[in-house]
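Example S7 (structure tokens).
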């Protein structure tokens, strides 16, 4: 009997009609394996995963494969996004056994959950042979299977251990990390490494802050080149905005078409900060259109942001997105069709499959003549209208707390920068104004959903769907990303409730997730016990739980003036510092927070009755050093510690700039504030 019909996870629901007798992750499944004395298959994936779909169609929908699975195993289906703790434990085992990881992940385990054989995608013939071999080994070589499982658990326990060497994450280590990234940088195509190539959003955020602190032209150039290369490539949706998960090549041309919330949230931050620091027109356009993509395509009113758009449409990858020259002519007419083919790099031979091409931007448009930009905008609108008539990819509409926290933080930063750089003379001012309004509503709605639905009895829940919160407990990255988002909302709105909520989450994290020596576990001390307790310090697709909680601790400490939260952040970063020194590409978020601590961070309070029109506040946002916190409002505004006992001087709006709890004199003039913020 398949038991997935009542699941809240869209990924599990995709498998609810399989002939496999699937169980969700639960103790009852392991009890059934013990009763039957059979091993467990733990199959881990997620709704937008292309190869998960392939394995499902080939094997899990096949009656002959299902018959073997049902006869000789208890089969458990896990959504990695809903249960990142389960995924982390078994991914570590998979990597330890095979030297690589990925999804779908296929794990064979004893009835107590101990893994003894791991892999990823298996074609149907291979998978059938593997099922038969494992079943035979369980019957005939049980002792060896159990011994191998024990060895795997010992290995992954060491890989996930807390403790070990520590060192302060100081300027010299951050400088070394930036230098290491520069040596690994792809000078031709931007980014790091070869195919498949992933957007290095967290490294970009680190390098932007490193440039701010040191003036490094090299760090800024790496960011500008990478951001331009990605935005011109096929990994970026040239019609509707939004980035795909990764490029299958080294030059950003052909994407794996799934669009993930976390990638777009982190990339929105990177392009927004590049726009803030340089005024770059391309960065401005991409930040605006990614923000619009989040609001239009992923936000569900009253329920937060959906997790992803699928890689496939009707089982075909890229069906919605790719074009031939003939299709462009059909949509645009002969003249504009040929012009669009040249602009978007659509050729007769194609860049994708069956002669189709992924749209990329082969010509500059952001700095082109007004007539060219007008023609480009018209073509984009008509192509998007034509594309909207095609079948569309499915949406994974579960709401993940940490990813929604990342989106709220990114949109709060976008809101501030868009307001600071508002220019009524811009040719697309109405479009920007509309995006600001729509994204502001989506951001506030999502923050409210996190505060009211995801916090249950003072504890954070991981997922919700259709407004209903799920059972999985929040993990460390949820507490960190949501607390950081609440700190961002406090700065944007001046409302004390957001800061209070952030403090409550951080207190739970310090009480329930802290590890000896300053580190953190990824699961709470009262969470379900797995074969090991995960504690991964590295940043991968998303910030590690440790990096996320440190970012929130630093912001909260600066906003409240409470040093114990900063001390906890410094201790946790010290456990990551040795990894920063050796593996900079996998510690980008931690290094980004390290830059904030080395720079101060600055705490900037602007006392004014009219924050929306205050030049001092605009100057603070334009010139804020790395990781600075900024609030504005009336003196002694309730719930805003940075405004406490800070009056206007001479009855005029006044800025107070402090660095690491040490304050400059209050100033009334923009030039004086800018001078203070430049003293680093």
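Recovered sequence:
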């Amino acid at each position: 009997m398949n038991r997935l019909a009542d699941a809240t996870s869209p990924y599990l629901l995709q498998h609810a009609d399989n002939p496999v007798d699937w169980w969700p992750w639960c103790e009852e499944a392991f009890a059934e394996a013990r009763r039957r004395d059979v091993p467990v298959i733990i199959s881990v994936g997620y709704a937008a995963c292309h190869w998960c779909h392939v394995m499902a169609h080939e094997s899990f929908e096949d009656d002959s494969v299902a018959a073997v699975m049902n006869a000789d195993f208890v089969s458990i289906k896990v959504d990695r996004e809903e249960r990142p703790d389960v995924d982390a434990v078994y991914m570590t085992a998979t990597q330890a056994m095979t030297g690589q990881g990925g999804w779908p992940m296929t794990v064979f385990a004893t009835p107590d959950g101990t893994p003894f054989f791991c892999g990823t995608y298996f074609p149907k013939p291979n998978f059938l042979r593997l099922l038969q071999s494992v079943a035979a080994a369980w019957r005939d070589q049980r002792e060896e299977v159990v011994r191998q499982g024990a060895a795997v658990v010992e290995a992954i326990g060491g890989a996930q251990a807390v403790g070990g060497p520590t060192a302060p994450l100081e300027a010299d280590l951050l400088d070394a990390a930036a230098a290491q990234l520069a040596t690994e940088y792809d000078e031709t195509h931007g980014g790091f490494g070869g195919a498949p190539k992933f957007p290095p959003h967290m490294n970009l955020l680190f390098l932007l802050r490193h440039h701010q602190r040191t003036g490094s032209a090299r760090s800024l150039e790496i960011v500008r080149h990478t951001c331009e290369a990605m935005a011109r490539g096929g990994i970026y949706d040239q019609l509707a905005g939004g980035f795909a998960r990764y490029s299958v090549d080294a030059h950003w041309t052909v994407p794996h078409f799934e669009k993930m919330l976390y990638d777009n949230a982190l990339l929105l931050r990177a392009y927004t900060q590049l726009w803030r620091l340089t005024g770059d027109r391309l960065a401005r356009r991409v930040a605006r259109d990614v923000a619009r993509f989040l609001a239009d395509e992923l936000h569900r009113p009253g329920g937060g942001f959906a997790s992803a758009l699928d890689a496939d449409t009707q089982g075909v990858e890229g069906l919605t997105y790719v074009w031939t020259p003939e299709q462009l002519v059909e949509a645009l007419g002969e003249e504009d069709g040929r012009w669009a083919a040249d602009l978007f790099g659509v050729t007769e031979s194609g860049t994708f499959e069956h002669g189709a091409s992924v749209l990329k931007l082969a010509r500059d448009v952001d700095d082109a003549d007004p007539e060219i930009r007008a023609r480009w905008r018209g073509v984009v609108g008509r192509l998007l209208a034509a594309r909207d008539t095609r079948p569309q990819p499915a949406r994974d509409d579960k709401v993940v707390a940490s990813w929604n926290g990342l989106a709220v933080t990114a949109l709060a930063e976008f809101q501030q920068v868009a307001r600071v750089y508002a220019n009524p003379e811009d040719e697309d001012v109405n479009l920007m104004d509309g995006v600001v309004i729509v994204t502001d509503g989506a951001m506030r709605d999502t923050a409210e959903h996190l505060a009211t639905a995801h916090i249950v009895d003072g504890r954070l829940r991981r997922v919700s769907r259709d407004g209903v919160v799920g059972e999985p407990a929040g993990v460390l990255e949820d507490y960190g990303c949501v607390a950081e988002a609440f700190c961002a909302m406090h700065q944007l709105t001046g409302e004390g409730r957001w800061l209070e909520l952030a403090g409550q989450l951080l207190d739970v994290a310090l009480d329930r997730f802290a590890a000896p020596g300053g580190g953190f576990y990824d699961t709470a001390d009262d969470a379900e016990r797995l074969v090991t307790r995960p504690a991964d310090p590295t940043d991968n697709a998303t910030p590690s739980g440790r990096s996320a909680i440190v970012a929130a601790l630093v912001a909260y400490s600066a906003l409240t003036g409470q040093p114990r939260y900063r001390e906890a952040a410094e201790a946790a970063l010290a456990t990551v510092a040795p990894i920063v020194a050796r593996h900079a590409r996998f510690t980008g978020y931690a290094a980004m927070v390290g830059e904030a601590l080395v720079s101060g961070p600055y705490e900037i309070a602007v006392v004014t009755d009219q924050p929306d029109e205050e030049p001092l506040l605009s100057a603070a946002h334009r010139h804020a050093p790395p990781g600075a916190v900024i609030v504005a409002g009336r003196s002694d505004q309730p719930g805003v510690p940075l405004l406490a006992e800070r009056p206007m001087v001479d009855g005029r709006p006044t800025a107070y700039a402090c660095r690491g709890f040490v304050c400059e004199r209050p100033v009334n003039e923009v030039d004086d504030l800018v001078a203070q913020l430049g003293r680093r």
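Notes on this example. The longest strand covers residues 40-45.
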